[in-house]
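Action item from last week, closing it out:
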Amino acid sequence: MPFIREATPLPDCFIVRQQVYPDGRGFFTEVWRSDFFAELGLPANFVQLNHSGSVGGVVRGLHFQWDPPMGKLMRVAVGRAMLVAVDIRKGSPTLGQAFTLECDASDRVQLWAPPGFARGFCVLSDFAEINYLVTNCYNPKGESGILWNDPALGIHWPVSDPILSKKDATAQTLAQWLDNPLSDHFTYP
């Protein structure tokens, strides 16, 4: 099996490691393969691949989509970044808890966070490119975000004054999201 699924402290959120085949020319690796992912209990059908490039100190997120619900498989393709997943599912034993994973493109690891998780990242190198496969197409009318530095989340970001989009800088807190009737789209289990 060229993939390994590793548990995180958050139920249903996993680290995915893939086998790398290096030689004198460079390397080869399979990033995703539906049959192997299905065997590991991971999504076998993705509908969109996104590619983001950001300068050092950028924080993007914490984003999620409820209509249609979207899961993300994130990986660092170039540079170094901290990937983040936050459980926002009502009734979850880990509601409001975050998992962070610092990784470099050479690590060849991925982070899977299903629907009901807010996701984001912080660029740790001068520049980084992040790829993420998603389980549903983007719908701007069915997406939102949680404030990156919401104290309730307890995320230890490696930057104190990040570069943010206006949307991310003014996002709602987790408490505000949970007070919104739309948050009922994400329940546990």
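Closing note: The radius of gyration is 16 Å.
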